[in-house]
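This section describes the prediction task in plain terms. A model, or a person checking by hand, is given the sequence of a single protein chain and must write out its three-dimensional structure as a string of tokens. No templates, partner chains or ligands are provided. The sample shown here is typical of the held-out split.
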Amino acid sequence: MYSPCLISKVKIRNVLMSIIKVGYLISYDYEFVKTSLPRVYDHVGEIFFAVDVDGKTWSGQNFHINDEFWEWVKTFDTENKITIYKDKFFVDGLSAMECDTRERNMLSKQMGSCDWYIQIDSDEYFVDFNVFIQKLNNYKPTQPTTIYCRVATLFKQLPSGYLIIGEAIEQLSFATNNPVYNLARNNTTGNKQVEWNDLVLHQSWARTPEEIRLKLNNWSHKDDFNTTSFYNLWNAIDEFNYYCLTNFHPLNPATWPKLIKIEGSMTEMLDSEEVRKINDKPVPDKKRKKFFSRLWKRLKNF
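The expected answer:
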């Protein structure tokens, strides 16, 4: 028999626990979710996969998800947490960024009511997602709020490990209690913007050459810079010359000041102290604001 006091404490704890849901955008880079999802799965009650019903990217190109992937999802989802949400996310006449933003708003509506809406891209890996969830459970804002996390970008995979942007000075939004997106995952007007030091690794560029070409042709930022020139730069970097590259972000150079090398597999790297040390340096707020301001100005001209 449990004591009335213990039962009361359990009830109080359950009342205070936030309802937190996670949404993934599943597209041509769907294979990366096999790394991202296991770090998330045990810590939330519901997970949604948004997939274009016609197999279209935001740029209107076709992609195909192998049946093996869906078999993997079925096997992995032992607690039946995952809902597959299919809809038309490509709209002819809209830019890739506008399609990106539209899909995120549609996904949040599909997720239904909750305290916190988290959206994660397939190639984004939380280093300590359980800590992030604990913080969300304890945070009770009284106004519309968006939580930004620190992001370290994986730039290239080498035979012995990975090249990573050496300082976590980018911040991207991940969680909100008011999912009204106006620039990809961001609400740049209505929500209070809160910055946390939770670290996420973004496998943005650590892909095969074929995957990089596909990404550049379908990325929501593809119209914002010379993608061919950037691909040539990426392709030339190796373990012998990476340290020569400085201030090389295609939209805001100072956002990516340098590259560092961390050896090991993806799992070894995610669990390493070397990755956590990336999070030690402060994030210059003005650089993040300048970066999103520039994107917003470009978006209004589409």
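For orientation: The chain has one domain: 4-300.
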